[in-house]
Amino acid sequence: MLKVENISKAYNTVLAVDNLSFEVNDGEIFGLLGINGAGKTTTFRMIIGLLDMDSGKITLDGQKIDYNITDKIGFLTEERSLLTKLTIKQQAMLYGKLKSMNEKDILQKLDYWLERFSISEYKNRKIKELSKGNQQKVQFIVSIIHEPKLLILDEPFTGLDPINVKLFMEVIEELKQKGCSIIFSSHQLEHVELFCEKLVILVKGKTVLKGNLKEIKHDYQKKNILVKGKIKEKEIENLPGVLSIKKVNDEYLIKIKEEKYIKDVFKVVKQSDDITKFLVEDASLNEIFLDKVGEAYEK
Question: What's the mean per-residue pLDDT of the chain?
Fold first, then answer.
C-alpha cells in the first residue's frame, strides 16, 4: 500500500502541494486529478524520490521510498521520456537494468509485451522511427516490464487510437488484479470514471475534493434527467430547481439543482403521450470536476 501523509512542497514563495494526504491500497486504481499547475507532477516526483518534501511522509508497504524501494515503482510520464536514438530493445535493456533486472528476464518480458502490443517487428527499430502511438506503447512497456508494485500513469492514452486505448485498459486491469497499486491521472475524465475507485482533485496544490468515486457522484446534489419524446420545454425550464434544458440528438437533457426537484419535472413530462424514456442520472465526473475546480478558483 502507498501512503501519502500531509506532504507539502514549495518553490520559493509558490506552494505547489499543500498538506496532501491519500492512500492507494494493493490492487486499487486511484485518480489524482487537476488542471495544469495543480501540483500533480510535483506529487509524482516526491513519490518516486526525485523531489524532497518540505514536510510530510510517503511510504510504500510501510517503508520510506528510497533507492532500495524505487525498483518496485513504474512511472509513465506525460512527456515522453524515451531516448529516441536507441532501439526498442536497447531502451528496454537500459530501463530493465536500472530496475535491477537481469538480461534474460528483460528479453523474455520484452518479447511478451511486444507481441501483446503487436509491435514485435519493431524490436530493433529506433524509437524516433516509430509513430507516436507506438512510442507510447514502448513507454508503457518499459514502465511495467519489471512488474512494479506501484505504477504511476500520467496521461497514459496520449496518441492512442480507440483500439489501443482498449488494449491499454485491459493490461491496466490485469495489473490491478495482480495486486499492483496504480495512480492514474488523465484530463480525459471518462477514463477516470471507468477505472478509479477513489480520487483526489487538486487546485493550486490544495485538495478540493476527495473520496470514493461512487459516493462522490451519489452525494453531489445536481442531477441530470434524460427524456425522450415531446415535452413542454418552456414549462420545464421555468420550474423551480431546473438549471437548464437542451436537446441532445433526439433526447432532452434537463439539469436540476438537487434530487427533490425530480418529481416536479416528472409531473410535466408525464402529460405527454409519447414519452419513451425518463432517466435520472448522477452528474458526470467531468461536470463535478468543472464545478469544484471553478468554485476553488473563485475563492
Answer: 93
